[in-house]
Structures are given as C-alpha cells and as structure tokens.
Amino acid sequence: MSETRYRAGMKVRRAVLGDAHVNKATARATSLDRDFQRYIAEAAWGSVWSREGLSRRERSLITIAMLAGLGHEEELAMHLRAAIDNTGTSLDDIREVLLQVGVYCGVPHANTAFKIAKEVLGQEIRRAETTETA
C-alpha cells in the first residue's frame, strides 16, 4: 500500500464526507476491518476521487446515481448529505440525477432514492421551498 496515496485519500475523504464521519469510521475500525478501511482510503479516495478528470461535484453525482441504482441505501444517504454539505452539489442536481436513475435503473430504485433524499435533506428542501414561495 502506498502511504502517499493513503494520506491523499484521507485528505479527500475528509473534504468530501466530513471530519465527523471519517473520525467515526476510523474510531470504529477493528482488527477485522482496519485493512479494509485503509483500502477504501487508498483505492477509492486516493486513487479515484483524487484524480483531476472530474470535479468533486461531478464525482458526487455519479456516485449518487450508482448507489441509488444499485440499492445501496446507507451509502446513498451518506453521499447525499456529503454532496450537499461539501461538494457544491445542489438539490436541483440531485433531482436531475435521480430522474436519470429512474430512466436507466428503474422507477423502484429512483423512488427509494427520492425517499432517502427527502429524509436526509429535509431541512434543505423545506428551506428551498420556503424561498420559492416567498
């Protein structure tokens, strides 16, 4: 494993998911999954998310679409929150990507993803709707 890639990955992971999430995941690591946590940091965050080819916003949207389409609800909720908080992703962006999920992955996947988005992003949705009606 590359220590440089690991450190770069942890930096991006913290920037995208937030310190609280990363600290919690790191603290919960045991001898069973510590190597897996390191692998995620190095491979996903240090090798892919650290690349310059796409912005973090674009990577967030792609990740949301894939997680929704594959039915990975817990990870989807985490990435929805992170996208709004840390990557410059808007509610409009999320709406559009979940519509794409409905077309290409199926209505049930999109329906579940919209439900999760409303639960996770309820405060932001209410704020946006209040601003629209004002």
From TrEMBL:
<protein>
    <recommendedName>
        <fullName>4-carboxymuconolactone decarboxylase</fullName>
        <ecNumber>4.1.1.44</ecNumber>
    </recommendedName>
</protein>
<dbReference type="InterPro" id="IPR029032">
    <property type="entry name" value="AhpD-like"/>
</dbReference>
<keyword id="KW-0456">Lyase</keyword>
<dbReference type="GO" id="GO:0047575">
    <property type="term" value="F:4-carboxymuconolactone decarboxylase activity"/>
</dbReference>
<dbReference type="InterPro" id="IPR003779">
    <property type="entry name" value="CMD-like"/>
</dbReference>
<dbReference type="InterPro" id="IPR012788">
    <property type="entry name" value="Decarb_PcaC"/>
</dbReference>
<dbReference type="InterPro" id="IPR052512">
    <property type="entry name" value="4CMD/NDH-1_regulator"/>
</dbReference>
<dbReference type="Pfam" id="PF02627">
    <property type="entry name" value="CMD"/>
</dbReference>
<feature type="domain" description="Carboxymuconolactone decarboxylase-like">
    <location>
        <begin position="35"/>
        <end position="119"/>
    </location>
</feature>
